Amino acid sequence: MRPSTPPTIRLVDYQQPAFWIEKVNLKFALHPTATKVTSEITFHANADRGDGPHDLRLDGRDLKLIHASIDGRDLADDEVLCDAEGLSVPADLVPQEGFTWRCTVEINPEGNTALEGLYMSNGMYCTQCEAQGFRKITYYLDRPDVMARFNVKIEGEAPVLLSNGNKINHGSWQDPWPKPAYLFALVAGELEVVEDQFTTRSGRDVVLQIFVRKGDEDKCDYAMDALKRSMRWDEEHYGREYDLDLFMIVAVDDFNMGAMENKGLNIFNSRLVLATPETATDANYKAIEAVIAHEYFHNWTGNRITCRDWFQLCLKEGLTVFRDQKFSGDMRSHSVQRIEDVLTLRARQFPEDAGPLSHPVRPEEYIEINNFYTATVYEKGAEVIGMLKRLVGDETYRAACDLYFERHDGQACTIEDWIRVFEDVSGQDLTQFKLWYQQNGTPVVSVDEDFSQGTYRLTLRQDADASGHRIDKAAQVIPVMTGFLDTDGSEPLPEQCLILDAAEKTFVFEGLTAKPVVSLLRGFSAPVILDHTMDSDQRMFLFKHDSDTFNKWEAGRGIALDLLCDMARGQLVKGANFADALRTIALDGALDPNFRALMLTLPSEDAIAVHMGHLGAVPDPEAIHRARHDLKKTIAKQLASDLPELFAAMRVRGPYSPDADAAGRRALRLAALGLLSLLDDCAAAQDLYWGADNMTEQFAALSILISAGKGADAIDAFYKQWKDEGLVLDKWFAIQAGTTPPEAALDVVRALGEHGDFNWKNPNRFRSLIGGFATAPASFHRADGRGYEFVADWLIKLDALNPQTTARMCGVFGTWKRYDKKRQTLISTQLRRIQKTPTLSKDTGEIIGKLLA
Ligand code: ARG
Ligand code: ZN
């Protein structure tokens, strides 16, 4: 069993391994409960260490060692010292120059409920090795700086036997590219394959295969199309070609995360592959496109160039997220993409960085690395790349990336390596910029303006955030894209990127006839909180006139947030002005429907709570829920005579297509329907529900009906229609958990927890119900604390089987200190109860420990 306090791993302690690995031969004799894995590993000395002699120390967990030998000599039981984390062979038995290690272990895929290592999902074998799952398959140097060539032989009954690289014959695979163990994959089962082809720009023909369960073959078209577009895009935008003759994707139903970039054999959560118009929403299609691209892009940013150690995770994840965001923008709309990316960043990363789980983009210590696949590493990591690109310019960015691929191909690298290519190409010193990787917390940028005699002075300051994380931190480099507007909406000065690289800086602009209205942080040019006090007239002016779409949206959102906060604090406010401006935008045919839909969507309840926090108020989840509903109603009334027409006009005729134009029209149509439902007693939503021919509209209508408390018939019908489609059933659980009115939500989720289809061991199903409930603030944060108790019960239950998914979901408590004392007490009681669980995993233990610290 694990020691009572699991050790903390630190970046400063990094040391190269004593031995490198050249080659690995793996043989799998598959059996559901007793798979035998035989490995033959060629080790050689690490000449850089020079501090031997060394024991052979290998990582291994939950392995039954059957046999081991070194250079053909069998090791006796007392020559191999096994413990909970691996094994050691004393130095005097280990030829220090190099040797061949052979061993056989037995593992139990069916008993592997953690879904890490080799496990079974619906009768099929699959693997998840990132970050440290390979050590649950065999003894190894399970660390990303050890890169080796793998040959794999799989013996089993299944008609499909897959691993990385080139197929030699049935069940036999060779990967020519050296890789760390976390990129190893194996899949075996009764799978169907959908096949296509891609020719790289240098003329290599690549076979593309998507493996799915029987019956799902017709759900792969979009994923396949997205894959081909990704391959082309990486050639055109980064000069990167695919490097094998075969690229495979497998869809798996039981998966802890989204997907995994194993070399040549990506494994996906099936929700990110399978789609038909009847079963998937526009949002699902968009996510499939983004994640297919993300995993494909990892082939260069992650696989060919990997991470030296797990502290460098953002080296591959931040960069790859940045790349997939730009890809999605190119495929759809950059301005909409930017708004959506910022919404995600603010919804997930800002709260993380303002609470007890805050950590730098490159963390410096961890207990369980799986807990660091976070919004900070991924999404803030991507923002850092975006700022770097802005600072050096597009051309230099491309030249630095080219140099990165040339210089580091085949290596396991660090953030220092990444920064250095930018310094070498641009000639800039990026020491200060690097603080973005090292300092946690969200900088707050505040603003002072002064205008006299034609001179405009703009003073920007960067400060600690409200949570105090940034006290005593050094000033970072913050690029602030800035525009200037005259009262007629024209721009007297060109847009410029102001670089705030000190605690305070004043920028002086001469020759203006009047004080400009300043448009700051255009395009959200840095992941900061902009504290710019504007009166509502100024905001309204930018809302109407800003030429930067992001800031136009931002101005509208700022007005909405102010109104919502006042309403949640019980003040009587009139939203008529705002609603009127919204109306103009909603009906403006020159604007992208998708953008108009985003405008019509009010800030989430969580976003309102955050804004109240910035204003120094304690959020009341129920009051926020009511305020949001009331403002929606005000807007609906103002647009009353336009809504039926807008709803009808945005109807997309002809067969369903998931493309951005059609999806944008549907988004606006459904936003209009949401408002209309507050006026017509859900009549139009009922019609749409019963008449819909695609999941986007069916699901949106269902959501509207449930939130209005009128969903009973539709809920039953939806279940009957979709009870055999697991991914659609996930939606059925999630939408009830997330949109049932707060008074009724707990009873509903309790009952659903007893439902015969609530297969809680499946991570997607668990997240749908428990996660859906816990992310509906007014339901989860009900004043009597029973929402907390319900979620804690389930987390304790799941932790015994699946630590990764449990630990991740504990993040729903991450914002607990923003609420009132009574709620804080109720939450901490539940957190302590979780913490006292005798068998608590180190994953969950680390998160709960931080939440309570
Ligand atoms: N590298 C994967 C991705 O971002 C994430 C896999 C992480 N899985 C885990 N169990 N930590 O595409
Ligand atoms: Zn990734």
Concise overview:
This protein has 853 residues and is α+β, with helices and mostly antiparallel strands. The chain has 27 helices and 31 strands.
Write out the distinct hetero groups bound to the structure. arginine, zinc ion
Low-confidence regions: none
Strand residue percentage: 15-25%
What's the Cα radius of gyration? 28 Å
Number of strands: 31
- Average of the residue pLDDT scores: 97
Shape: globular
Spatial sequence of strands, sheet with the most strands? 6-5-9-3-2-12-15-14
- The number of helical elements comes to 27
| Terminal-residue CA separation | 25 Å
Structural class: alpha+beta
Question: Can you tell me about this structure?
Answer:
There is one protein chain. With 853 residues, the protein is α+β, with helices and mostly antiparallel strands. It has 27 helices and 31 strands. It has an eight-stranded mixed beta sheet, with no helix packed on it. The longest helix is centred in the middle third of the chain and has 21 residues, at 334-354. The chain is globular. The two termini are 25 Å apart. The model has no long low-confidence stretch (mean pLDDT 97). The protein binds arginine and zinc ion (ZN). The site of zinc ion has 4 residues, from helix 3. Residues 128, 130-131, 256-257, 259-261, 294-295, 317, 370, 373, 804 line the site of arginine.
What characteristics describe this protein?
single chain, 853 residues, alpha+beta, eight-stranded mixed beta sheet, five-stranded mixed beta sheet, 27 helices, 31 strands, globular, binds arginine, binds zinc ion, protease, Aminopeptidase_N-like_N
